[in-house]
Specification:
Layout lengths: L1 H9 L9 H8 L5 H12 L6 E5 L5 H10 L2 E6 L2 H13 L6 E5 L12 E7 L8 H11 E14 L23 H11 L2 E7 L1 H18 L7 H4 L3 H13 L3 E9 L3
Parallel strand pairs: 1-2, 1-4, 2-3, 4-5
Antiparallel strand pairs: 5-7, 6-7
Helix pairs in contact: 2-4, 3-4, 6-7
């Protein structure tokens, strides 16, 4: 929290006028950033009356974007208490604390009642979860019948083993990538109907290239995830680009529904 606060102060950003977009480089920390989150909003079909569950909510960027764009209520669940604390503070700073709440919990066992939410999502989370059956079964359980679920993750590509370190893991011991074929099977086994499957890997590579060009031209944004990852951020980002270029990883978004 202190690192983000200091970076905002150094950049002269007025905390009272802070918008979710100002924080996107740090709290929309997934490939293709806010653009991907807006695709999730569309795929979930949200309205202001929707209650949404973000499984593995991190610093809360996607949750705040959903709430800001649609007016919906979002509950975020994350294992890391520090992330939940930072997410809560960032929602207060951006005036979205009335529509977002974050709680420490396990994405595979949230403790929420059956059918408690209208929609659910998970963004770049399953790569660190070995028991994917439990994750998608939990997403299915907490959804009301007819509810939508979007899983946007990094998947194993056909180009060979992943080069480490990457932002989600320093080595293979904490990395559990599914293939697109695995995902289809896992989601069907959980009970979901797959509405769409969109591979955005080519767009993801272009996004990284554009981001690098923008940083070379304008310098880095005032707040980035390097505030958390420190010197490791550079090698991780470089490997992420190489993995995409060599098709060792894919970025794929699955939109699903719990049958009515």
């Amino acid at each position: 929290m202190a690192a983000i606060s200091s970076a905002l102060d150094a950049a002269g950003i007025d905390r009272a006028a802070l918008r979710p977009l100002d924080l996107a480089p740090v709290d929309e920390f997934h490939i293709r950033g806010r653009a991907a989150t807006l695709e999730i909003v569309e795929a979930l079909g949200l309205s202001a009356s929707s209650h949404v569950l973000d499984l593995g909510s991190g610093l809360g960027g996607p949750a705040r974007t959903l709430a800001e764009v649609t007016g919906c209520m979002v509950t975020g669940v994350d294992l890391t208490s520090e992330f939940c604390e930072v997410a809560t503070a960032l929602s207060e700073w951006t005036g979205l604390s009335d529509r977002t709440r974050f709680q420490v919990g396990d994405a595979t066992d949230t403790g929420l009642p059956d059918g408690a939410v209208d929609a659910a999502l998970t963004v770049h989370v399953a790569m660190n979860i070995s028991d994917k059956h439990a994750l998608y079964a939990e997403a299915f359980r907490v959804l009301r019948p007819g509810g939508r679920f979007v899983a946007y993750d990094v998947l194993q590509g056909e180009g060979g083993d992943v080069r480490y370190p990457v932002p989600w893991a320093n080595d293979p011991s904490t990395s559990f990538l599914a293939t697109p074929e695995d995902m289809r099977e896992l989601l069907h086994e959980a009970g979901f109907e797959i509405i769409s499957e969109v591979d955005s890997s080519d767009e993801s590579l272009v996004w990284f290239q554009q981001m690098r060009a923008r940083i070379e031209r304008d310098g880095p944004p005032p707040v980035t995830f390097s505030a958390f990852l420190g010197e490791a951020f550079g090698p991780m980002a470089a490997n992420q680009v190489a993995n995409l270029a060599e098709r060792r990883i894919r970025t794929v978004m699955f939109a699903c529904a719990r049958p009515a």
